[in-house]
Amino acid sequence: MKGYDFLECLGMYGNTEDARMVMEDQLLDLIFLDINLPEESGWDFAQFIPAHIQIIFTTAYPNYALESYELNALDYLLKPIAEDRLKKALDKAVSHFQQKVPEKGVVLPTDHIFVKADRKLFRLELNEIQYIEAMKDYVMIHTKDKKLMVAMNIKTIFNQLPNTDFVRINKSFVVNLNKVESVDNHWVTIAGFEMPLGASFKEDLLERIKKQTINR
Q1: Cβ–Cβ < 8 Å for 166, 106
Q2: Dihedral sign (CA 17, 19, 22, 28)
Q3: 76, 56 contact by CB (below 8 A)
Q4: CB of 75 closer than 8 Å to CB of 96
Q5: Over the stretch 75-112, which tens digit does the pLDDT of each residue have?
Q6: What is the DSSP letter of 210?
Q7: In this structure, how many other beta carbons lie within 10 angstroms of the beta carbon of residue 71?
């Protein structure tokens, strides 16, 4: 749309299963979501979308408007959608994300993170994390002593971790390089647990390890 060329559409999907796959593999900011979808309604699907992804409902049913704001939806568009109404919703989205941009001079911590699990914020030292496992709409963070289930897809959490210590080894696992016990052509082992090494991720991992390898 003219005036909104900075927005990139990553795809349009007719069912929630395809949308889930994209949500797990892509870093998304905004989803336009219909309510009347096959197999699973958009309303049910919305309740599992990570909180950092904003939702604009697009539907022919006005009776869900109030419920949409209970899910913190950014806007609710009724079909047929008028162009000026769509622009208003897009302006609201732009304003929201501009407010989320960190101020200059803000330094993010490099030794720990906070994650939300079981309605609490948990502080995790980065050197505690052994590996992170994707579980549909969640990730399981594994440490030596505990496991934390976090409502976030694996690409989102990986992009917020320091790339000096963390590397993705397949679509479902991110590992802490400092915790890796062994690597071969097919497996990565941490704390005795073997994880498959994906072909498209192998080169990056081996290149990272190569810098720390002693050769004769």
Answers
A1: no
A2: negative
A3: yes
A4: no
A5: 999 999 999 999 999 998 888 877 765 444 444 556 88
A6: H
A7: 14
